[in-house]
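Shipment paperwork, digital attachment
Item: protein structure file
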Amino acid sequence: MYIELVDETEQVSEEIIEQTEKLLKFAADYIKLAESKEMAVTFVDNSRSQEINLKYREKDAPTDVISLEYKPDEEEFFFDEDMEIPEELMAELDPFIGELFISIDKAVEQAKEYGHSLKREYGWLVVHGFLHINGYDHYTPEEEAEMFGLQEEILTAYGLKR
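Attachment content:
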């Protein structure tokens, strides 16, 4: 999986950036995501997080991670309108799955609040956002149990335990 990593803040350590890339590749393998997939991760401050949250979610407040799932538009590929296009084919034609925006300010704040390391908090945010852009959600108790269970499995298997 190709991952574009950008640190708009110029404050994220090389260790966290490396962990992010390795953890995302690990998570992709864990859920058996095709190797051809691509995504982006941008580290931002609270101010930028708030701008993005307002633009895409209509919430005027900073948040820890914003996940923008990308779904290819069949019309982009000029298929005959009567043609049924298998999901696998669409996935191969357009490998970009989405992007994450992670607030470094919120990560620091939440690591302190939850009493765990900054590495663990960044890992939690990365996997949480990654699962969102791969179709997982937590709107219902059943969805929450599935997503948070898988998230904890991935983090534990990777070695980022509580």
